[in-house]
Design goal:
alpha+beta, 60s Ribosomal Protein L30, Chain: A, Phosphoribosyl-aminoimidazole Synthetase, Chain A, domain 2, eight-stranded mixed β-sheet, 8 helices, about 25% strand
């Protein structure tokens, strides 16, 4: 059973507020007091992580769950070209959950937070009647007017993705098939890496006209860019950096939880083949109209319909 609320908060506070991990006033007051430098805009994102929806306790170790909960928010900050500063965690726990599980969850979240100098600045706790629920708010910032939006793509822009696509979904499919996976052998699923450095590089060099993270699947997230930019897109199947193996193309197009970046760039921008050690691949272009099309391996085209993850879909 987890500790009582007050003791649980005190335990998390002691763990989170290590020397060198203090920015303003955080856990312990009604609000966190965080200074944002002059001429900078705050970025705030929030994501639910629900047991048996975003993770399963029998599949995912507690530290992986904590890591993944924070990675979702950090990836949103990366997609805006931002720098993360602080996180807020609201955690609802069932009464029969062990404190050991909670400690390992917090350890996984804080380990990732430390890599990006993100402080755990506050949150809330509650008793859940059924299952674990974590809501993470991440606060970041960008220089005023420099956030990379989904709405900036124009016809003629090229489309790029970072890393490879499909390995996280492939691991999830194996788990669904009853296979036991070693988390350290499937890092992209259990410990995804938010592309903070890449997003920041693209913003600082003014290379990306629009950007989004691939958390719901390439087809779905490209649809968001097209919708906000009032444009269409063409994707070349042969160009996709698909994870090798069964259904590689399908998983690359529609598999989610990749936390890679999908971005558009003007054709006169020179995009490096690697950024921060991560491969960058040109996969298509933005076109006029509203349709998305896939140029298949045989050269024929077909409509590319969003078929990634969608709640209530």
């Amino acid at each position: 059973m987890p500790l009582k609320e007050k003791l649980l908060i005190q335990r998390i506070r002691r763990t989170a507020l290590r020397p060198g991990n203090r920015r303003g006033h955080g856990i312990g007051d009604d609000c966190a007091v965080l200074r944002i430098a002059r001429d900078r805009e705050a970025l705030i994102t929030t994501d639910f992580s629900l047991e048996d929806v975003h993770f399963r306790s029998q599949w995912h170790p507690p530290d992986s769950v904590g890591h993944r909960c924070l990675a979702r928010g950090l990836s949103d900050i990366a997609a805006m070209g931002g720098v993360p500063h602080a996180a807020f965690l609201s955690l609802a726990l069932p009464q029969d959950l062990s404190q050991k599980w909670v400690d390992r969850f917090i350890a996984g979240l804080l380990k990732l937070a430390a890599r990006y100098s993100v402080s755990l600045a506050g949150g809330d706790t509650a008793q859940s009647p059924d299952g674990i629920l974590a809501d993470v708010v991440v606060l970041g910032s960008v220089p005023e007017g420099e956030a990379i939006l989904r709405s900036g793509a124009q016809p003629g822009d090229f489309l790029y993705v970072t890393g490879t696509l499909g390995s996280s979904s492939a691991a999830l499919n194996q788990l669904r098939d009853g296979k036991t996976l070693r988390p350290r052998s499937h890092l992209k699923h259990f410990y995804p890496e938010p592309r903070i450095a890449i997003g920041r590089f693209l913003r600082e060099k003014r290379l990306a006209s629009a950007m989004i993270d691939i958390s719901d699947g390439l087809s779905t997230d490209l649809g968001h860019i097209c919708e906000e930019s009032k444009a269409g897109a063409v994707v070349f199947a042969e160009a996709l950096p698909a994870h090798p193996g069964k259904d590689g193309l399908t998983l690359a197009l529609h598999g989610g939880e990749e936390y890679e970046l999908l971005f558009a760039a003007r054709p006169n921008r020179r995009i490096p083949k690697q950024i921060a050690g991560v491969p960058v691949t040109k996969i298509g272009e933005i076109v006029r109209g509203k349709q998305m099309k896939l140029i298949k391996l045989d050269g024929k085209s077909e409509a590319l319909k969003p078929a990634g993850w969608e709640h209530f879909g």
